[in-house]
Structure formats: C-alpha cells, structure tokens
Specification:
By secondary structure, the protein is an alpha+beta fold. The chain has 5 helices and 6 strands. The strands form 2 sheets. The chain has a 4-stranded mixed sheet with strand order 2-3-5-6. Strands 1-4 form a two-stranded antiparallel sheet.
C-alpha cells in the first residue's frame, strides 16, 4: 500500500483486510435501496465547506459483513455486488468528484473506516501490483496516472503546510 503515513497515524487492520480481500476476490459489496441509493451515513470525522457532515457511502469486502448491516434504516436495502473494475472506475472516481467519502468495513453499529475515494483507489492499485494481477485490469494505467497526480498534489500541499 502507498505511504500515506502523514495522512493516517495508524492504518486500521480492517482497512488492510478490506483492500486485500477485495483484490483477491475482485468483488466489492454494498447495499442499495429500491430507488438506487447506496447505504450511506454522515461522516463522524469530516465536514463539508458549510459545516455539514460529509456523506459516507458504505462498502464491504464480503457478503456476510454487508448482510449484517441490513437492519434499521438499511433493512429494506438489497445486497449488490460490484466487480472491482466497476468499483474503482465508476464508483470511486464519481464519489471523488461528488466529494463523498468511502466507508469500508462498517459493522452493524455503523462503526467503520472513512477514507477518501482516491486514497482507497491508490491503495487498491498498490495491492493489485502486490498480488501481481495488473494485466487483469484494462484501465490500470489510467487509474494509476490519476493516483500519481493525487499523490503529487497531496505531497505538494503537505510541504506547504
């Protein structure tokens, strides 16, 4: 995984497990209502420019964890499986453009890890390299370029502050 130690004091082992499991299975799971809205909750850590909590859309690395969360406000949501390609290219890039966060490894009490979509994308791409399966992803080079640009921007901003 990339070196984002200046962004995160300590990487949660559940995050690492999500990354590894997702790449191994090439699948991601979410919950979706009948209108097409994904399971989401307000961020516990980040506010938008007007002081409101940023939206966190939730994803899981396995079906069982996602199904555990089909309760309370998500009880009528259906389990949806996404290919890793679809998740990276369609969901993460769109979420970044919409300034949403990704929630991974959420439990039934809505406790999980909040991460920027591009940061997660970069970590997934690094794990794809580690697992030596780059050739299985058509858009890998394009996504890698997006991550490199993001990392350069983060590095530039980090040295300024």
């Amino acid at each position: 995984m990339q070196d984002t130690s200046f962004l995160m004091e300590e990487i949660d082992p559940r995050y690492i497990q999500f990354i590894q499991q997702t790449v191994q299975q090439r699948m991601v799971y979410t919950l979706q209502d009948e209108e097409g809205f994904l399971a989401q909750c307000p961020s516990e850590e980040h506010d938008d420019t007007i002081g409101e909590p940023v939206i966190v859309e939730c994803f899981w690395g396995n079906k069982n964890d996602a199904q555990m969360c089909q309760q309370d406000e998500w009880q009528n949501f259906q389990l949806v499986d996404l290919t890793l390609d679809e998740f990276m290219y369609d969901f993460l890039l769109d979420m970044d453009a919409d300034t949403k966060l990704v929630g991974v490894a959420f439990d039934a009490q809505l406790y999980g890890i909040e991460v920027e979509p591009i940061e997660l994308l970069c970590d997934l791409l690094a794990e794809i390299k580690t697992q030596q399966c780059v050739d299985e992803f058509d858009d890998f080079a394009e996504l890698q370029q997006i991550c490199q640009q993001w990392q350069q921007e983060i590095s530039k901003n980090h040295t300024i502050h």
